[in-house]
Design brief:
The chain is of the alpha+beta class. Helices cover 28% and strands 28% of the residues. The chain has six helices and seven strands, in the order H-H-E-E-E-H-E-H-E-E-H-H-E. Strands 6-5-1-2-3-4-7 form a seven-stranded antiparallel beta sheet. Strand 2 and strand 3 form a beta hairpin. Helix 5 runs antiparallel to helix 6.
């Protein structure tokens, strides 16, 4: 009887855990959790931004899927970061906006002074729809932009993006910039994927 109840309990748990299709995932087998930064280290490491809002290192995340998308508006030090996560059959999105120059080196002061604006995100057609389109644009298998050969020489500042993902136990970070410029000057479909991902995460996810 106990054996039957145990099997029934496990079966119910498995039924309750929705298996989500993540498409092709290309992990970084050398991903170093210690080197990972919430803020792209183009400018500096600011780990206190993580702790201000209880955001752990991505390697400590319990989410089945997590996407962390950083945009820096070079040459300024304005940043925004979108975190899209999936766990227990539910999606959640948040957006963080801040200027690195104005931050205090104390997480409590930053939170109290409203130095980092935090917004919950919603998707008009549902998060599943957004994720489906992210998969169609190969979000978990795109290369770093600097790995693309025979690309035009683009601007060195502008919109610089860093995308870090966690899919189960797989992790990777890749970077790209000024996608609009490259889709106008190159037929390489990877630049169109970059551009579409920006649109999906920045436009299709709206502040509540």
């Amino acid at each position: 009887m106990r054996y039957f109840l145990l099997i029934l309990l496990i079966s119910n748990q498995l039924v309750g855990q929705k298996k989500i299709d993540t498409g092709i995932v290309k992990p970084d087998n050398n991903f170093n959790c210690k080197d990972y930064s919430f803020i792209d280290p183009i400018y500096a490491l600011h780990s206190f931004i993580d702790s201000a809002y209880k955001i752990s290192n991505i390697c400590e995340s319990k989410n089945q899927i997590e996407i962390r998308f950083t945009t820096s508006y070079a040459p300024t030090q304005m940043f925004d970061i979108i975190i899209l996560s999936y766990s227990n059959n539910n999606w959640e999105g948040r957006k963080y906006e801040f200027n690195v120059d104005t931050l205090y080196y104390d997480s409590t002061l930053n939170a109290d002074a409203g130095k980092i604006r935090v917004s919950r995100l919603k998707a008009a057609r549902g998060f599943d729809s957004v994720f489906y389109m992210l998969k169609k644009n190969n979000i978990f298998s795109l290369p770093n932009q600097n790995e693309i050969k025979n690309k035009p020489h683009g601007p060195t500042d502008g919109l610089i993006h860093s995308l870090t993902f966690k899919v189960n136990d797989d992790y990777r970070t890749y970077k790209f910039s000024n996608a609009k410029y490259y889709i106008e000057h190159s037929k390489n479909k990877i630049f169109r994927n970059y551009y579409n991902i920006i649109e999906l995460l920045s436009e299709k996810l709206e502040k509540e």
